[in-house]
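Troubleshooting: if your tokenizer reports a length mismatch, compare your output against this known-good record of 335 residues.
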Amino acid sequence: MAEVLVTGGAGFIGSNFVRYALARHPDWRVTTLDKLTYAGRRENLHDVLDDPRHTFVHGDILDAAVSAPLVERADLVVHFAAETHVDRSILGAGEFIRTDVEGTFVLLEAARRAPRLRRFVQISTDEVYGSVPKGASRETDELRPRNPYAASKAGADRLAYSYWATYDVPVVITRASNNYGPYQFPEKVIPLFVTNAIDGLPVPLYGDGRNVRDWLHVHDHCEALDLVIDSGSAGEVFNIGGGNEVMNVDLTHQILAALGRPASLIQPVPDRPGHDRRYCLDTTKLRALGWAPRVPFDEGLRETVEWYRRNEWWWRPIKEQDPAFRSYYQTQYGR
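Known-good structure output:
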């Protein structure tokens, strides 16, 4: 049995990967390490918590007494744990630097001592490239992060690379575009707009709404990670993009149409500082290994909208009973 450590495995992408890994690999024993911050929730793992090949550990990657022994006995480490929301990084960058950079350092130090480790996957983001007015970012392009979240991820990205170059830690780095799918915390645009629209509430659209994002279904992301674990080479970087460039305003109209809600729910709000205009990834390198996204965006978005419609048990307690969420929403959107 391969021992697989998934940090941040109670978050959105992490929990989907844990579920995917257990289903796809009967010879994997998966340990989830998660601090259970506001976006890391046991509910995201409700259907695998009792799986005999899954162990949940409540802990912080910054706490070496907890995280280091898990890394040291692992065959594979898939490192999702991070503070991830751009808006929150603008309100306060400190936690992003501590978790995303210092936390990654703690794990990499343990990885140096891990005798069985054959892969350390550093989950990065397309935001490290900064805004891309035209064309598509390649893995060799300059990193030009423009907000504290992107900068913290760029720092972790390059730190992980340095541990391969200096200490021969078997690091592979992935930079994915915007993910969507089930179990995404409702501060992010798709679940926020879907759940607001379900309740007939305004959907707060930044600026002119013409910012462009490339959307990747979380299941396609999981398949890409699986391939990189198996076929990627240490020290390499792989872009993972869905190839679905959509303006935020068009995305908003698609969500409202899927729910039968009027365009009058769109509430323009002031743009956020440093809002990148466009992201786009060149995925030639990953496609050469045999990967391609399989979920068409229109179909995936419909299925995602339907998931939130069917699973109010998951998101209503967050939006209606969590004082911290309500305080954040008030600060960010003023209502």
